[in-house]
Amino acid sequence: MAVYAAHLTRTLQGTPSVFQVTAQEALGSTVKPALRKVVEYLAAAYPEKCGWLERWYDELYLALDACLQYHYLKHYAASFSESFYGLIRTPTSSQLEFSSGTRLPPSLERSSLLLLTLAPYLWDKAGDIVQRWRERNEDGLLGKSKSDSLRRAAVKVYSIAHLVFELSRLAQMCLYMSGRSVSATLALRWLGLRLRDAPTQREDSGDLSSMFVFVLYLYINCSKRASRQKILDVASFCHKLRSKMVFASCILK
Predict the structure, then answer these.
(1) How far apart are the C-alpha atoms of 237 and 245, rounded to whole Å?
(2) Cβ atoms 194, 188 nearer than 8 A
(3) Rounded to the nearest 5 degrees, what angle is found at the Cα of 17, between the Cα atoms of 106 and 30?
(4) How many CA atoms lie within 13 A of 55 on its CB side?
(5) Closest by CA position to 22, among listed 85, 100, 114, 94
(6) How far is Cα 94 from Cα 104, in angstroms, rounded to an integer?
(7) How far apart are CA 132 and CA 86, in angstroms?
(8) Residues 6+ apart with CB under 8 A from 70
(9) pTM of the model
(10) Can you tell me where the transmembrane regions are (predicted)?
């Protein structure tokens, strides 16, 4: 009985709540559309110089997100949004948990990076293509050729896959809430990882940069159309905050 109690205490200690998990997921999913509004404004205001940013936004965001997520995975063993909410990724296996210190094993680090960046990019690209085919099918533009039949089948398969994926996410969250799973999301379960509260001594100037990005997208996303003055205000705020971050990092060093 005492052994079971000790194991239960170790398992539940530092386990994040459902609100923390959903909050960090919401933060991670709103950064991309918020930055897209800035790019759309720049492309509309300066089409000759910034028009290409809108055309290649998905690829540019993929590169930016990969660099950001790699930095946080390498130094904080967490994604950007997880680190913002004070969470850390740890292997579910007790043997791997302490084998590499506070850093994730290289294989889990690479797998986490792919699922955080490349997988959403491919899923969004596939969704855009399927959406165009769905609109053409609704408008009656798809004929009876073999290629058009395959497009209609792809639309149905994608809809079913999307429904199954969302139901699986809900089921995984229910398992996590009931304590029958230590992984809060499907991606963490596939990787054999779980979320834990990060040690307090990890907090440094990196958290300040997280706060800066969070305030940036929240400030821009408060309205559907960001005015030019709002963009200038955000740019001024970012410049001042960046100066403070550089000064703080020099002191810490």
Answers:
(1) 12
(2) yes
(3) 70
(4) 6
(5) 85
(6) 13
(7) 40
(8) 113
(9) 0.73
(10) none
